[in-house]
Amino acid sequence: MPLVPPASPKKDRRVLRAVLRWTAAVVVFAAAGAGTAYGIAGMERTDVPGLGTVSDGRWDYPTLTKPPLPSGSPGPFAEENKAGAHYADLRALVLPAPKGASEDKALRGADGWLPTKDFLAQFTGKDRVDALRQNFKDNGLRHIAARGWTTPDGTRTRVYLLQFDTAVVVDDLFSGDIAPYSGPGYSLRGEGDFAADQDFPSAARVESIPYSVYAESKPYGKEQVRQAYLSAGDVLAMVVQSRKGAAKAVPFQQTVILQSELLS
User: Fold this and answer.
1) Which of 84, 192, 194, 205 is the most buried if burial means most Cβ atoms within 10 Å?
2) Are 224 and 173 in contact (CB under 8 A)?
3) How far apart are CA 113 and CA 90, in angstroms?
4) Phi and psi (nearest 5°) for 254?
5) 3-class DSSP state for residue 245?
C-alpha cells in the first residue's frame, strides 16, 4: 500500500500531544487511488495510562477517512495552496453521525448540497438574516454541505460546511461579525444568551484552524445550546448541539475536534 508523504516531526509531535491530552481521536495515515486519504479512529480511554474509566461520555463514531485528493492537488494547508482550497469533495468531509444516532435526512439537501435559504432559516431577526444572505452573496458562497442527527439521549447535532473561493474570504467572515469571541454574531431561533466556552480544551485544538466556541448561559429554556465556528481554509464550519436540560460538554468537544481533523 502506498504511503502518504510524511508530515514534519514537529507537527507530528504537536498533534500527538493534543490527542494524548484530550484523548479524542488518533490520526492514522492511509492512501487511496491517486490521492491521499487520512483515517481518524477513536481511541479507547482505557488505552491511555491514567485514564482508566470505561466511558467519559464520548460518542462512538465510526472510523473516519478523508476522501482522496485529486492527483496533484495539495491539501488545504499546504504551503503551495495559497487559496487554502479544499480540493476533495466537501460532502465527504462532513462528519458522519455516531453509532446509534438517527440521521436528519433533510439536512443532506439535494445531491448532498443544502440550499442557502435552509441554512439561513435557522437564524432569527429578518434584517440580520437579510444582511447575512447579502454577505454570503457578496463573498461568493459556492455551496453548503451539512449533516444532522439525534442521539438516544436526545442530543441534536447539526454540522454545516460553507465553502467560499479563498481562505482570505473565510478569515474575513470569521473575524468579522459572524464569530466574535464574546458570542455568536447571529442568533439561532429559540436560543438565549451566549458566552465564550472557557472549558473547551485548548490543547486538543487543531493548530491551523481558528475556533470560536460558545455555550448558552443560564438561565436557558427547555434546552441548552452549544455552538462553534471554525475557519478552515476556504471553509467556514458551524457546529451546533442542543439537548433538553443541558447539552453535555464532552460530545460537543469531540464533535468539534473530529470535524476540525477532517478539514485539516
Assistant:
1) 84
2) no
3) 9
4) -60, -45
5) coil
Q: How many CB atoms lie within 10 A of CB 182?
A: 10
Cα 91 to Cα 163: distance, rounded to the nearest angstrom? 11
CA distance 250 to 23: 11
Overall pTM surpassing 0.70 (yes/no): yes
Q: How far apart are CA 176 and CA 218, in angstroms?
A: 26
- Cα-Cα-Cα-Cα torsion 186, 241, 101, 221, nearest 10 degrees, comes to -100
Distance in angstroms (rounded) separating the CA atoms of residues 69 and 208: 19
Q: Which region, left, alpha or beta, applies to residue 49 given φ > 0 means left and ψ of -120 to 50 means alpha?
A: beta
Residue 87 corresponds to which cell in the numbers above? 480540493
Task: With CA atoms as reference, report the closest residue to 209 among 177, 178, 182, 235.
Answer: 235
Under-50 pLDDT residues of the chain: 1-54
Residue 125 makes CB contacts below 8 A (sequence gap 6+) with: 186, 187
Strand partners, 26: 41
Helix (H, G, I), strand (E, B) or coil at 146: strand
Cis peptide before 219 (omega within 30 of 0): yes
Q: What is the DSSP letter of 94?
A: S
The Cα angle at residue 257 between residues 106 and 26, in degrees rounded to 5? 115
Strand order in the sheet with 26-32: 26-32, 35-41, 64-65
Q: What is the DSSP letter of 113?
A: B
Antiparallel, parallel or unpaired: β 194-196 and 64-65: unpaired
Q: How many CB atoms lie within 10 A of CB 124?
A: 13
Say what the pLDDT of residue 165 is: 95
Buried b (16+ CB within 10 A) or exposed e, 49-88: eeeeeeeeebbebeebbbbbbeeebebbbeeebeebbbbb
Kind of pairing between the strands at 156-163 and 194-196: unpaired
